[in-house]
Amino acid sequence: MNVRRRRISGIAVTAATAIGLGTLSACSSDGSAAGNTDKFDVVASFYPMEYLAEQIGGDHVNVTTLTEPGQEPHDLELSAKQTAQMGEADAVLYLKSLQPAVDEAIAQSGVKTKIDAATLTKLEDHGDVEHDHGHGGEEHAGEEHAHEGGDGLDPHVWLDPVKYAEIAEGVARAFEKADPDHAADYRANAEALAKKLGGLDTAFKDGLAKTGTKVFFTNHAAFGYLAERYGLTQEAINGLDPESEPSPARIKELQEEAKADGVTTVFYETLVSGKTAKTLAKDAGLKTDVLDPLEGITDKSRGDDYVAVMQSNLKALRTALGAE
Hints:
single chain; about 325 residues; 4-stranded parallel β-sheet; disordered N terminus
């Protein structure tokens, strides 16, 4: 697929500050800390992993999440107690490189089953940064890659329903192996989830097939996989300081791009400040809307689970891109 993946600047910025976390039990799906139940105890690093564990595990799992609702997962910090409790779980499900603190804690833990979602599908490098937008480009590029795990691979793979389904298949296999007594149920649950994700993929494919433009502006460079899957172009508007306002030169550049590409909307998200996106939109005469990277579900989310929020994202994209 010949898809342009351009970036206005090179750093994916997160604005939320890490919130001090308590014990794992505070985030458990049924209130029980990891390792303290008679179920298959799974620690999930953040919401997309939690959703997979719950959907595939069903009634047989007790899922604990390390990232509180509303917390920006990239900035997660873990307490010593959380790290210790992780070792009591039957399995841990995470996405290596997204949360360095989690990677370090897992390496130190004695948990038997470690499921790295990054190994269950192919990650790609969406860090082809343009360096001709003012000084500091090389520095930006380096920080962008640091955000993406240091190897340039984009971790936001769950925003592509097809790749997310590949991860789900791998998680199901790991659950079946680790808890063979309930393997049949895990397999059945995984097949049901695959149908949901397949339906979502079809909805995106059909819904974005005919649009007035293929370009969208977003505050966070999280949508590279989604853009590539459905023939779109993500323009990530990122700076060193997420609270900073775009320079007059940047505004002019974006105005020109918006006119050339028929861009109508600047997207921001629920867990990161939308100030930059709103300032740009106001100065460039564009609209704003939410495109949710699904790093967490809060009361501000447009939906109460992965599928519902992705459907809301599709609706927002169809409106912004002028879909027929």
